[in-house]
Design goal:
The protein is of the alpha+beta class and 563 residues long.
Length: 563
């Protein structure tokens, strides 16, 4: 992942302003420690902090078209860049960067080309011929992007809030699947899949179609010129990513440079469910496995730094981001710069345990749509910023555009949990990879119960966080929380504690409004809380809050609203 910062329409175009842009861009250097670039054009600035993954030697940014009238700064990867280059044979490319195609596509097609990109990306492009500019974000919001407005009339874009929050009067999270055009003056949606309308699909389930689509999604993400690996928790999703990557690595371009032995990584408290499961999967697949440990105290000590980097006060995001943040630092120390990860599957297939209570296929499907649309505020934010904090890039094959289209077109009756006929959560995905002749995974791993990452690293992690928050936040503080924090008022001591840290780094109201609120149980949306009356008394994002579903669910005497 890279860091981008772009500013348009500055009143002050002095050397001091240029120095200020450089200073703000440095706040993103953790995302791209390999090189820094800046293009200034009268009252416009495009800055870039590069993490070199593809073409490390010549792909420094900003990037240009042939005559340098079009300038682009990009964060992300364009997996189909070679195919796009074939469509642009009349253009002269200056680098081997996958992102350079964006400048040439704009030159060829104008603003209506974003749908042609297959990848994860946020970019800002300046056309110096008429001083117009556009900004766009990938379909799901895998890469972060913020947009802000200065008092001087300037318009800002940045990969992280910390690069623009001090200089903008208002700012917001840039919507996924949207493009901003200075010519039009507003956002419009470029990503318009059939599932977005939440209409109930009816395509019959074909396990081989689903399997092949996922394998294709993993294979295209093996595009790299640097060392890489897979984040392996031992759960279904990460195990499938590792299994497919391991099976196809030998035939990828990456293998001749980095070998055919896949590296896998896991973190947890000693004795945690994830560590033992990941070790078993790694042994089965024959990967070079790296196992990391952390203590509850080490996680607590890292909380302020974690919240600074991930820029949220959402409880479940912070719980899961902390071990991922610690693991990313260890991975980077090994010289690895890119990892594949399993985010997105639970949203697409209804894998969270609360989906057991979905009353019918219609509500099941609508909830999956809501979850996918909100991924940029939760799991995508966590996976991207927790890893980027240490200059590590995370790629998520489950959020491949083509794969999502196929998975979300399946009649949701196939996704419904039906215990009486042996269908647990994500049965259609498990079944698609249940190959008796050439197994991808051991059966008991393939059918392992869902564990949320913050639970799987060790149940005492969340319990330790709650205990620590109880020591920091008094009953009186929580009682008066609605006066101190009228927006998204924290309802637990843990949430209050995270909020105080967030406000220290991001005190503006615009920052508070970038974080969603509302009741949740086991990562549900507020709407799905209505599926079970008992859940309203146990609003906790942990999977163990799914009473009567999780095998290690909270018991009544473990439920404490104060925490």
């Amino acid at each position: 992942m890279c860091g981008i910062l772009a500013v348009f329409g500055c009143v002050d175009c002095s050397q001091a302003k240029r120095a200020r842009i450089i200073e703000l861009s440095r706040r993103l250097r953790h995302r791209g420690p390999d090189w820094s670039g800046l293009h200034s054009e009268q009252d416009c600035y495009l800055a870039h902090q590069r993490l070199a993954i593809v073409d490390p030697a010549s792909g420094d940014q900003p990037l240009y078209n042939e005559d340098k009238t079009i300038i682009v700064t990009v964060n992300g990867e364009i997996y189909n860049h070679k195919a796009l280059r074939e469509q642009l044979k009349s253009h002269k490319f200056n680098t081997g960067s996958d992102c350079e195609v964006i400048a040439h596509l704009y030159e060829e097609y104008g603003e209506d080309f974003v749908h042609m990109l297959d990848g994860m990306f946020s970019f800002v492009l300046l056309d110096t011929r008429d001083k117009s500019y556009i900004a766009a974000r990938d379909a799901i919001g895998i890469t972060p992007l913020y947009m802000g407005w200065g008092l001087d009339g300037s318009v800002w874009f940045a990969s992280e809030m910390k690069a623009l929050s001090d200089d903008c009067e208002q700012f917001m999270s840039f919507l996924p699947g949207h493009i901003y055009s200075s010519k039009i003056g507003g956002l419009r949606r470029w990503y318009n899949p059939t599932w977005y309308s939440e209409r109930i699909p009816s395509t019959p389930y074909d396990p081989l179609v689903l399997r092949h689509a996922f394998e294709k999604a993993v294979i295209k993400r093996l595009m790299t010129d640097v060392p890489f690996g897979v984040l392996l928790s031992g759960g279904l999703d990460s195990s499938l990513v590792a299994a497919v990557a391991s099976r196809h690595l030998a035939n990828s371009d990456a293998s001749w440079q980095w070998g055919t032995k896949l590296h896998t990584f896991c973190i947890g408290l000693k004795g945690s469910p994830d560590l033992s499961a990941a070790r078993e999967v790694a042994d089965y697949l024959g990967t070079r496995h790296h196992e990391f440990y952390f203590t509850v105290q080490e996680g607590i000590d890292a909380l302020e730094e974690v919240i600074y980097h991930i820029e949220t006060y959402d409880v479940t995001t912070i719980r899961a981001s902390t071990p991922m943040f610690l693991m990313s630092r260890k991975i980077k120390s090994l010289g690895v710069k890119m990892v594949l990860s399993g985010e997105g599957s639970d949203e697409i297939f209804g894998g969270y345990l609360y989906f057991h209570k979905a009353p019918n296929k219609e509500e099941f499907h609508e909830e999956t749509c809501r979850k996918i649309k909100a991924l940029h505020l939760f799991d995508c934010l966590r996976a991207n910023k927790s890893t980027s904090a240490w200059g590590l890039e995370a790629r998520v094959p489950f959020l491949d555009k083509e794969f999502i289209d196929i998975a979300m077109s399946i009649d949701p009756k196939w996704k419904m949990i039906q215990k009486d006929i042996g269908r647990i959560e994500k049965w259609i995905l498990r079944n698609a990879f249940d190959d008796e002749e050439n197994p991808y995974l051991p059966k008991h791993i393939l059918y392992r119960q869902k564990e949320q990452f913050s639970d799987g690293v060790g149940y005492s992690w969340i319990d330790g966080l709650k205990d620590h928050a109880n020591q920091q936040v008094t009953d009186s503080m929580l009682t008066n929380a609605n006066f101190v924090y009228p927006e998204n008022t924290p309802t637990t001591k843990e949430a209050y504690y995270y909020r105080t840290i967030f406000e220290k780094f991001f005190p503006k109201n615009a920052a508070r409004l970038t974080v969603p609120g509302g009741p949740s149980v086991a990562c549900s949306t507020a709407k799905a809380v209505e599926w079970d009356a008992s859940w309203s008394k146990n609003l906790d994002p942990s999977g163990r809050a799914a009473l009567g579903v999780h095998s290690a669910a909270y018991t009544d005497n473990k439920i404490d609203a104060s925490t």
